[in-house]
Design goal:
This protein is an all-alpha fold and 364 residues long. It has a domain at 275-364: Tetratricopeptide repeat domain (Serine Threonine Protein Phosphatase 5, Tetratricopeptide repeat). The chain has 16 helices and no strands. The protein has helices at residues 2-85, 94-105, 109-122, 127-139, 143-160, 167-183, 187-203, 213-223, 227-240, 245-257, 261-274, 279-291, 295-308, 314-325, 329-342, 347-363. It starts with a helix and ends with a helix.
Length: 364
């Protein structure tokens, strides 16, 4: 009986067990092979991603190298040109110019002007001398003197250098001269000079930085009440510098002058998105709402403008107008007095206060 059981185990059950084990081993090997293949696939994918990253880094380094070379070339040309302006033998130490830069950072503009005049005494044949002097005059709000210095600068530039090789420098000079003309109230001359600056900008690849001749010319046109021309220039300015909050604020002012109030409000809103802390933009948007007879909404903006800049006189005056329109005459008179307290020569506030007092007297 026992012998029969052993024979049965040997020839019936054992082969079945061996086949099961063999199948398990084969399955494990297949799974291991599949796992290895997956690992290789992941590794290959990672290697491809690494290769793409290396190629991208190579392109970035290549672009940075080109930019560095271009910048070095521009700086080198500028330094060579400055030496030419000084007749290749500059008598003004570079330390003087470094001192000027330091004083500008400290906003000591009168000291800068003193140094600029000393440079003029040492080297009157250099365009760079008069460029430094002109900028110093402008920083001290001496715009007439600045314009005269720019004229000397441009004369020396045209007679001692080749303008075609230094369009960046000439663009800078004409732009700043145009700005000085506008600030001096010479808007017609400003438009003429800034038009030359724009032409230089169009015909050459100059680096604008924060310079924008369209913006300055738009302000000059606006002062002359040429609002359509001002609008066209301000739109061009925004194309050049689309993230400048001030440009959208001025655009709103121009649209307000054209009585395109809804567009003006939209422009002010963009400006406030870019610079929510601008007291001027809050005030100007409030003025447009006044023009739309939306006095309560306007008052909210004037209050915010005052909160942002309590020493600004304009919001008090414009809020007084809105208060008077709503019948709050005592509050309006107090606001006019506050505006005049901040700025005693504020003619607009004085005139509106007198008009309100006269109207109240007539109503008695």
């Amino acid at each position: 009986m026992v012998r029969t059981g052993i024979i049965f185990l040997r020839y019936q059950i054992a082969p079945t067990w061996e086949s099961i084990v063999d199948e398990k081993i084969k399955k494990i090997k297949r799974e291991e092979k599949d796992l290895n293949m997956q690992r290789w696939d992941v590794l290959e994918l990672q290697m491809r991603e690494l290769l793409l990253l290396l190629r991208l880094l190579r392109k970035i380094l290549f672009l940075l190298l080109n930019k560095a070379v271009s910048l070095a070339t521009v700086v080198n040309k500028f330094m060579k040109q400055r030496n030419k302006w000084a007749d290749a033998t500059p008598v003004v130490p570079d330390a003087t110019y470094l001192e000027i830069q330091y004083l500008k950072q400290e906003e000591r503009y009168e000291d800068v002007l003193i140094l600029a005049k000393e440079i003029e005494l040492l080297n009157k044949n250099s365009a760079y001398t008069y460029l430094t002097l002109a900028i110093a005059y402008s920083d001290c709000d001496l715009y007439e003197e600045s314009i005269a210095a720019y004229d000397k600068c441009l004369h020396l530039f045209d007679t001692t250098t080749n303008p075609d090789n230094n369009l960046m420098s000439k663009f800078q000079m004409t732009y700043h001269k145009g700005e000085a003309c506008r600030l001096a109230g010479k808007n017609e001359l400003a438009i003429e000079v800034l038009t030359d600056s724009i032409q230089l900008m169009k015909t050459s690849r100059v680096w604008l930085g924060d310079r924008d001749p369209y913006f300055e010319r738009a302000l000059a046109y606006s002062e002359l009440e040429e609002d359509e021309l001002a609008l066209a220039d301000m739109q061009e300015s925004i194309k050049l510098h689309p993230n400048q909050a001030e440009s959208y604020c001025v655009l709103g002012d121009i649209l307000d002058q054209l009585e395109r109030f809804e567009e003006a409000i939209y422009s002010y809103d963009i400006s406030l998105v870019l610079d929510p802390q601008s007291s001027t933009t809050h005030n100007n948007k409030g003025c447009t709402l006044n023009n739309m007879n939306l006095f309560r909404e306007a008052i909210q903006l004037f209050e915010e403008a005052i909160r942002l800049d309590p020493n600004s006189h304009a919001p008090f005056c414009h809020m007084a107008f809105a208060k008077a329109a709503l019948g709050f005459y005592d509050e309006a008179l107090e606001l006019y007095d506050k505006a005049l307290e901040i700025y005693p020569n504020y003619q607009n506030a004085q005139q509106r206060k007198e008009d309100l007092l006269r109207d109240l007297e007539m109503d008695k």
